[in-house]
């Protein structure tokens, strides 16, 4: 099984996550965003499948939301 890791930069450039890194950290603490994987003292990443599932949940939830 191969797992792809996503860097901070790729969260924005590839996946289009529009949040600052500080906000992503707050979402992680709240359990509202996938947890990071610590790769080293100054390097973190996220599991791509988990980020994609998070995005899919956001897209699916709009079908349940009523327009304002």
Structural overview:
This is AlpA family transcriptional regulator. It holds the Pfam family Phage_AlpA. The chain has helices spanning 8-13, 21-30, 48-64; strands spanning 5-6, 37-40, 43-47. A 3-stranded antiparallel sheet has the order 1-3-2. The chain starts with a strand and ends with a helix. The chain is built from 3 helices and 3 strands. The chain has one domain (5-64). With 68 residues, the protein is α+β, with helices and mostly antiparallel strands. 7% of the residues are buried.
Element order: H for helix, E for strand:
EHHEEH
State the low-pLDDT regions, or none: none
The rounded distance between the terminal residues' Cα atoms is: 43 Å
Strand order of the largest sheet: 1-3-2
Radius of gyration from the alpha-carbon trace, in angstroms? 13 Å
Count the DSSP helices.
3
Percent of residues in beta strands: 15-25%
Helix fraction, binned, reads 40-55%
Report the principal-axis shape. Answer: globular
What is the quaternary state of this protein? Answer: single chain
Helix/strand class:
alpha+beta
Biggest β-sheet: count, sense, barrel?
Answer: 3 strands, antiparallel
Mean pLDDT across all amino acids: 93
Total domain modules = 1
Protein name: AlpA family transcriptional regulator
Organism: Rhodoplanes elegans
InterPro entries: AlpA (IPR010260)
């Amino acid at each position: 099984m191969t797992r792809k890791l996503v860097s901070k930069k790729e969260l924005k450039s590839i996946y289009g996550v529009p949040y600052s890194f500080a906000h992503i950290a707050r979402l992680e603490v709240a359990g509202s965003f996938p947890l990071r994987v610590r790769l080293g003292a100054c390097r973190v990443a996220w599991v791509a499948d988990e980020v994609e599932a998070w995005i899919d949940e956001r897209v699916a939830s709009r079908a349940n939301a009523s327009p304002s």
